[in-house]
Write a structure and sequence with these properties.
This protein has 480 residues and is mainly α. It has 4 domains: 3-82 and 242-310, HUPs (Rossmann fold), CATH 3.40.50.620; 85-239, HUPs (Rossmann fold), CATH 3.40.50; 327-377, Helicase, Ruva Protein, domain 3 (Orthogonal Bundle); 386-476, Arc Repressor Mutant, subunit A. Helices cover 46% and strands 10% of the residues. Strands 1-2-3 form a 3-stranded parallel sheet. Strand 6 and strand 7 (170-175) form a beta hairpin. The N and C termini lie far apart (79 Å). The mean pLDDT is 96. The protein binds one RNA strand of 76 nucleotides through helix 4, strand 7, strand 8, strand 12 and helix 11.
Length: 480
RNA sequence: GGCCCUGUAGUCUAGCGGUGAGGACGUCGGCCUUUCAAGCCGAAGAUCGCGGGUUCGAAUCCCGUCGGGGCUACCA
């Protein structure tokens, strides 16, 4: 039984890299019929952000990467929020002290800082000097009883080689004498990541730990902790980092990194997920379009790459467009509707929006492409693009448009095929190309020079709107 | 600095001793069309980081070297 987890710290939003990690875990659970669990790692109370857990879950739900068990959804091995598990960590830490694998440390931050400074000055790497490791037990007891601030540190044996059997990278070895004697319990009674994650992964019966590469170097500590507790460690897999354009770990400063930002820009969850999955993983053949369900069938850790991948916004947009074109009109209507609220435009009737979406055809890569870029479907144009006026509104245009208006008034059926025929007939009778009518009409109706097929668009707008806009343009556009 | 990971076109990648180094995004042409997209066709773009070796033959194996990244907290 596969049990995997996503264990973010609630810093306020879900990072796209976090979503990819969560997704890889989710895919593994789906593929194996296992369980995907969400655990909140909020052991740093200096970084608490109000509402962060809700935002995290909201983003996960939007993406469809929903936990089967965990924070907010519950389950048999909770609580799943670390700040609610303090007693457990306290007991576990005490256990390690008792068994001689950890010790109390009373060193002050000042002493630690000074020690580090000296080590650096000597060109050594900064590591705890084990000062309190050999403290007299009686003295330790006395200082504890006196309520002196302290932490609990783990002991690291000398001269051992600790090897992580990473599913993606193969065996990775570390020399134990280079591993620092990490703090396990902070002086405020909260555990550090290392203790909490190991304890929880064991207690929550996690079988595979799939996390970002930034954790690879602390894995030897985790391995040691499993050993001290006498527990079986899970399988580890460290996925490569997502990089910015300059090759560094993608962060806030590089633009949009929150899942919420992509949602607001009009990306589809399956588009984002498809793109993210391909960032570091490939199926081995040349397919690139996948729904989340399809990915669950083919994803494997063995095919995850080892090196970091640069986040390519252009490719994300392209893949999202692929998914846009795979959606039904009715689903698009539901998904697009909220975006009218975002820009403060009144919502159109669902039937009308459906027709707009159909007329737009393959022209949208984002949900928002059905809103902001095509205001003319929802309101008369307030101005006319200067370059297009210059290019398409010729000296003969007003007179041609007047004839066209007259023809439209008389047209029995305001349908695209009839409109098409009427326009071409008129053009022919005037001895001009159809473009002489088409382009000025588009300009008059939309204020811009491009867009969906003119006749289909006119049918959607309807006779009344078309005539009104044509007449307005005749008044507002130049007559030479 | 130390430890660890990593290195195929601008970007994402396939490759796993014998290929014209394949695909995708982007770029540039063409077709289609009333425009813009989409689609289709085509082009440019990679001394497979570099240097040695092993081999009849190396992107693929070995050694070295350089570059990039991560970690190095009472943060995760």
């Amino acid at each position: 039984m596969v049990r995997v987890r996503f264990a973010p710290s609630p810093t306020g939003y879900l990072h796209v890299g976090g979503l990819r990690t969560a997704f890889y875990n989710w895919l593994l659970a789906r593929r194996e019929g296992g369980t995907f669990l969400l655990r909140i790692e909020d052991t740093d109370r200096t970084r608490l952000v109000e509402g962060a857990v809700e935002a995290l879950l909201e983003a996960l739900n939007w993406a469809g990467v929903t936990p089967d068990e965990g924070a907010m959804v519950g389950g048999p091995l909770g609580p799943y929020v670390q700040s609610e598990r303090l007693e457990i960590y306290g007991e576990m830490a005490a256990r390690l002290v008792e068994s001689g694998h950890a010790y109390h440390c009373f060193c002050t931050p000042e002493r630690l800082a000074e020690m580090r400074e000296q080590q650096m000055a000597r060109g050594e790497s900064a590591m705890y000097d084990r000062h309190c490791r050999s403290l007299d037990p009686a003295e330790c007891k006395r200082r504890l009883a006196a309520g002196e601030p302290h932490v609990i540190r783990m002991k690291i044996p000398d001269g051992r080689t600790l090897t992580v059997e990473d599913q993606i990278r193969g065996p990775v070895s570390f020399d134990s004498s280079l591993v620092d004697e990490q703090v396990l319990m902070k002086s405020d009674g909260f555990p550090t990541y290392h203790l909490a994650a190991v304890v929880d992964d064991h207690l929550m019966e996690i079988t595979h730990v799939v996390r970002g590469e930034e954790w690879l170097s602390s894995t030897p500590k985790h391995l040691l902790l499993y050993e001290y507790f006498g527990w079986q460690p899970p399988v580890f897999a460290h996925v490569p980092l997502i990089l910015n354009a300059s090759g560094k770990k993608l962060s806030k400063r590089d633009g949009d990194v929150s899942v919420e930002a992509y949602r607001e820009k009009g990306y589809l969850p399956e588009g984002l997920l498809n793109f993210l999955a391909l960032l570091g993983w490939s199926p081995g053949d040349e397919r690139e379009f996948f729904t989340p369900q399809e990915l669950a069938g083919v994803f494997s850790l063995e095919r995850v790459r080892k090196s970091g991948a640069v986040f390519d916004f252009d490719k994300l947009l392209h893949i999202n467009g692929l998914h846009m074109r795979a959606q039904s009109t009715s689903r698009l209507v539901d998904l697009v509707m909220p975006f009218f609220d975002h820009v403060g435009w009144p919502r159109p009737e669902p039937e009308y929006l459906a027709r707009v979406i159909e007329v737009m055809g393959e022209r949208a890569n984002l949900l928002t492409d059905y809103v902001e870029p095509i205001p003319y479907f929802y309101a008369d144009p307030s101005e006319y693009e200067a370059a297009t006026v210059k290019k398409r509104w010729k000296a003969a245009s007003p007179e041609l448009m007047e004839a066209w208006v007259a023809r439209l008034e008389a047209l029995e059926e305001f349908r695209h095929d009839a409109l098409d025929e009427a326009l071409r007939t008129l053009a022919e009778s005037r001895g001009v190309g159809a473009g002489q009518l088409i382009h000025p009409t588009r300009l008059a109706l939309t204020g811009v020079g491009n867009g969906p097929g003119l006749f289909e668009m006119m049918e959607v707008l309807g006779r009344e709107v078309c005539l009104r806009r044509l007449r307005a343009a005749l008044e507002r556009l130049p007559r030479v």
